[in-house]
């Protein structure tokens, strides 16, 4: 008995689904513009985003200049957003507030444009071009609508995106450091990347670790450089260590950094002694102006 009831329910659901599909197909193929418009709004109310979106897309080009155009474009953008199609939704919301700048819905469309961009951004380990665009859109909304109820949310989203950029820059700096042992160029890139990070994110929680890694990278760069480059690079390693020690006197990395500082100082002492020895040798090779001139006899 129960099986029969269950079977009857399933059949009923399938019948309703087929009927809905049939109605949708009829309207899409043979319906008038007015019928499609009303059906699109009906599907939208029922949160049938796919069918509503299909019909809105068909009728919007035919609604130019009509009172229905504004609402249709706004709702069409939402059908894409609610299906998780964030990039197309972003472009539709942007088109709406640019086309209907005086509409009461324009601020909402501007917010939804920024929110759609935010939701389309990838994780920190991927390309962050969309992240920068989303941050810009969110900030534009805040600047344009300072009294909006969405300002607080936008500020939080901007901070979240900034943390993604920070993590991306941190991972990039560490990646250069990890592979720096393979070439002098990578040691250089590691130092440059860390410097860029410190300038862009001066208050980052990652700066202590990166300040230590910069000492390490510069020390190894100096140690693996040709003789002509070593003095300047060991001096930079010492300067990086002093800056690190001053800012993070209780750092867990301090002992390791001290060893590199000691070795850098020893190398600079060695280089100074070698320079002094070369200077003395040069002086010995120069003629003494006070020495008596040699007299040669003619044969």
TrEMBL record:
Keyword Transport: no
UniProt-listed InterPro entries: BamD (IPR017689), BamD-like (IPR039565), TPR-like_helical_dom_sf (IPR011990)
Keyword Membrane: yes
Entry-linked PROSITE patterns: PROKAR_LIPOPROTEIN
Pfam families: YfiO (PF13525)
All residue ranges annotated as the Outer membrane lipoprotein BamD-like domain in the record: 32-179, 185-265
Keywords: Cell outer membrane, Membrane, Signal
Residue ranges with Basic and acidic residues bias: 274-283
Signal peptide residues on this chain, from the entry's feature table: 1-22
Region (Disordered) location: 274-299
NCBIfam families, per database record: OM_YfiO (TIGR03302)
The name this protein goes by in its record: Outer membrane protein assembly factor BamD
């Amino acid at each position: 008995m129960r099986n029969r009831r269950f079977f009857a329910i399933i059949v009923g659901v399938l019948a309703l689904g087929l009927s809905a599909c049939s109605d949708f197909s009829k309207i899409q193929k043979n319906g008038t513009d007015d019928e499609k418009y009303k059906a699109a709004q009906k599907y939208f109310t029922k949160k049938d985003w796919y069918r509503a979106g299909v019909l809105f897309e068909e009728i919007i080009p035919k609604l130019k200049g009509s009172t229905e155009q504004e609402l249709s474009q706004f709702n069409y953008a939402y059908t894409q957003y609610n299906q998780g199609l964030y990039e197309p939704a972003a472009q539709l919301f942007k088109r709406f507030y640019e086309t209907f700048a005086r509409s009461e819905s324009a601020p909402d469309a501007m917010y939804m444009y920024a929110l759609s961009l935010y939701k389309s951004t990838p994780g920190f380990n991927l390309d962050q071009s969309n992240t920068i665009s989303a941050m810009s859109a969110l900030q534009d909304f805040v600047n344009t609508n300072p009294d909006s109820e969405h300002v607080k949310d936008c500020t939080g989203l901007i901070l979240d995106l900034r943390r993604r950029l920070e993590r991306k820059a941190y991972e990039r700096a560490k990646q250069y450091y990890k592979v720096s042992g393979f070439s002098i160029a990578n040691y250089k890139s590691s130092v440059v990347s860390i410097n860029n990070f410190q300038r862009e994110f001066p208050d980052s929680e990652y700066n202590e670790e990166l300040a230590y890694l910069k000492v390490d990278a510069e020390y190894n760069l100096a140690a693996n450089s040709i003789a002509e480059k070593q003095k300047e690079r060991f001096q930079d390693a010492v300067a990086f260590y002093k800056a690190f020690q001053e800012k993070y006197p209780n750092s867990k990395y301090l002992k390791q950094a001290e060893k590199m500082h000691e070795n850098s100082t020893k190398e600079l002492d060695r280089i100074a002694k070698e320079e002094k020895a070369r200077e003395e040798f040069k002086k010995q090779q120069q003629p003494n102006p006070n020495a008596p001139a040699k007299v040669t006899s003619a044969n």
